[in-house]
Amino acid sequence: MMIGIGSTEAGGLRERLQPTIDHIAQQAGARKLRLALDLADGFVFLVVVCSSTRASTALQLWLAEVASLDRGSRVPVERLSPYPFDPIAAGPTSLEAAELAELVLPRLMAPSGADGGLTFIDAVRAREADAEAWLLLLMRLNERRNAIASALGGPLTLLIPPTLEGDFSRFAPDLRSIRSVAVEIDDLDDAAPAPGTVLLNAYDDGYGRVEDIQALVGEVERARMQAQSGVPAVRRMLRVLLLRLVGAKRRTGELEEAERLLDEAGEIDDSLGDSGGRTATQLVRSDLLIARGELDEAAGLVESAIQTLGETGDVWALADAWGRLADILEARGELDEALRIRRDEELPVYERLGDVRSRAVTMGKVADILSARGELDEALRIRRDEQLPVFERLGDVRSLLVARANLASALLQRREPADIHEIIELLALALRDARRLRLPETQQIVQLVRQLGEDPDAPPFA
């Protein structure tokens, strides 16, 4: 079932797909992937949403070629997929979850041994009937992300169709959070690239819009019905959705409903004997306590989770837990210890693992603390140099508009007349994106515009 790129060259596949390869080479997303692979030193995780199997095949051919050119020698490539590499060849009539896991997981845990090679997981041809098998594999990858990163030691690229994009975000949230690059690639025949809002919704943890929350409620109801089968993987899927809905209810102030949903997730953890699930639920419970103003009790839960995660070796989750503790300390005014945690416990983990997005988010929180301590120049430098370029490169629209608004707010705090032009430009960009995507941050940005004495409904803001 494993198909390597090299074995397909003799059949004239490259010649047949050359127009598509040329089209892909001109796309900004493809250039981002090339740069990320060229700069990769150890494990990095990249996500590509491909509009067609032809685009996926052409992209892999192109990346294999340019990687060899960039490095000056042939780069080994391994493609893990149950589907043929040739986009017009017949594929399997059915796909079983166990077969798919047997194909992919052992190769990731015991790679071929070629240093610096490219590894692709290609799911772009997945049909509706294959979705459950891929969903379960995504959950397995999410659970084993640390071991995979350690064993693989090189870049891993996941290629998925738009139909699996939302599932990837919802059922492999921790794996998704460590992506270095997430892009969309379109085919020659596409009239237009896939809507940017699709990617934004998939990666948006906020669920701030009413329609997003309603859709999530519907997913929870469907998962409850499926979980009646008693299949552990399906029950884990339900727990993930419940925790996301808890977060949405917390943000809308429905704390009692959030508490009830959290108890339901906890019952699933208990029935499965899932210690990792209990820790995740415990951390989400700490968020509810913070929302209620019960900071000391929340800190106790987070500190307990830190101890557990330290014993299990889940470094990403441990860094996230440390970040939650820093949030609590910052809220209590303990800025020095919060800053120490950001610098000593969080940032080194993200830097070591190549998690550029989490590093940028954490640097923004460092800037928040520095601003509170009056160190405005360094806070501004961080927002300009350490945050904005990262979110621009990742194409993370929401994080980018928030970072722009925060930079504008910091410049307002400095009260320098020379900053006015930059403040207006930043807020105009942020407000246009927030309105286009109908995000809850819109009103906060409108308030910043009014602080300037400007009209948010007039140019350049409208």
From TrEMBL:
Which organism is this entry from?
Answer: Enhygromyxa salina
Q: What protein name is recorded for this chain?
A: Uncharacterized protein
Write down the InterPro entries for this protein, in alphabetical order.
TPR-like_helical_dom_sf (IPR011990)
